[in-house]
């Protein structure tokens, strides 16, 4: 299956519920959206696999358990590279690249960061593993470049215990959590993940500062304070901050985004908060408060980002509460 479109709700797959002759195909389809292929090296009736995915606005959480298997990441089968956190609870796993010398064994019980930007083969034996997969665009805003290797230990980071405990919480109790509680935990995990990655960037020299980072930071702060102004635009910001329009555009280009993209992202996040926390506001009122020129444009942009109309998002959260 593709990445779930219903956010903050567990989507589960268990090979035991699938006829043996369909297991390999169904399991392969389940993870193909991440650029992963499963090597068919087991008899169908011997395949054991349990997958759970919870998708959120800031990224995904996954848990997986399976019998001995080999999976391969092909960078050509996904639109961009990916980076994720993992916590190996049981079993053993070896990750290797094109060179045999690059093979690395994942340590059981350790919190690791993985980067997929080349061919990797994963040899797993009775593995139970948790994954946190942040949005790659959010990752790019923090650092640019490659990690020193396919995995990097986060065991010495001061947020390590928080990450482990909350990943375990989602793994063990997701079925009893409503969508609001799940969103708080999952979004918090992704926020913590970005903080940890920012520290990784500083330590490994991958931080994406740029010669015009001060312009970008100033503009981002101004947008956060003035997103409700429908006249907010690159020209407006450059005039208010007294930077040239060309400097502003170059600053955002360094961060691989645009002024208008950040304005829209900020407005949509604020609109989502209003939908969840103020059930009495009409959709057109929310659109106006968040700086959209019309409720039609707001609804279209909201659907593009969150995959459902604003009213459906609000109803889902109210129902789960």
From TrEMBL:
Keywords (A to Z) from UniProt: DNA-binding, Transcription, Transcription regulation
InterPro entries in the record: Homeodomain-like_sf, HTH_AraC, HTH_AraC-typ_CS
HTH araC/xylS-type domain mapped to chain residues: 217-316
TM annotation in the entry: none
Coiled coil: none
Keyword flag Transcription regulation: yes
UniProt xrefs under Gene3D superfamilies: Homeodomain-like (1.10.10.60)
Top-level taxon: Bacteria
GO terms assigned for molecular function: DNA-binding transcription factor activity; sequence-specific DNA binding
Record-linked SUPFAM superfamilies: Homeodomain-like
Name by which UniProt lists this protein: HTH araC/xylS-type domain-containing protein
Organism: Pantoea coffeiphila
């Amino acid at each position: 299956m593709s990445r779930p479109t219903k956010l903050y709700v567990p989507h589960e797959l268990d090979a035991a519920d699938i006829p043996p002759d369909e297991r390999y195909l169904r399991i392969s389809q389940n993870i193909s959206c991440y650029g992963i292929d499963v090597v068919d090296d087991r008899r169908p009736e011997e395949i054991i696999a349990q997958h759970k995915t919870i998708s959120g606005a800031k990224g995904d959480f996954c848990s997986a358990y399976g019998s001995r298997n080999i999976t391969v990441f092909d960078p050509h089968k996904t639109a961009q590279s990916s980076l994720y956190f993992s916590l190996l609870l049981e079993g053993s796993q070896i990750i290797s690249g094109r060179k045999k010398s690059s093979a690395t064994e994942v340590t059981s019980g350790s919190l690791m960061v993985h980067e997929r930007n080349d061919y990797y083969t994963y040899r797993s034996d009775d593995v139970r593993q948790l994954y946190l997969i942040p949005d790659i665009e959010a990752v790019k805003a923090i650092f640019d470049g490659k990690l020193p290797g396919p995995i990097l230990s986060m065991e010495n980071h001061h947020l390590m215990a928080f990450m482990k405990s909350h990943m375990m919480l989602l793994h063990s109790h997701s079925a009893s959590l409503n969508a609001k509680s799940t969103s708080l935990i999952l979004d918090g995990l992704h926020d913590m993940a970005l903080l940890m990655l920012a520290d990784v960037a500083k330590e490994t020299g991958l931080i994406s500062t740029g010669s015009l980072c001060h312009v970008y930071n100033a503009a981002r702060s101004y947008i956060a304070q003035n997103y409700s102004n429908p006249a907010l635009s690159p020209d407006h910001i450059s005039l208010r901050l007294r930077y040239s329009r060309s400097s502003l555009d170059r600053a955002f280009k360094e961060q691989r985004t645009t002024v208008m993209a950040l304005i829209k992202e900020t407005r949509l996040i604020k609109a989502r908060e209003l939908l969840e926390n103020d059930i009495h506001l009409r959709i057109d009122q929310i659109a106006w408060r968040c700086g959209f020129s019309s409720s039609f444009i707001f609804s279209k942009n909201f659907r593009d980002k969150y995959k459902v109309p604003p009213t459906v998002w609000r109803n889902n959260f109210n129902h789960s509460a």
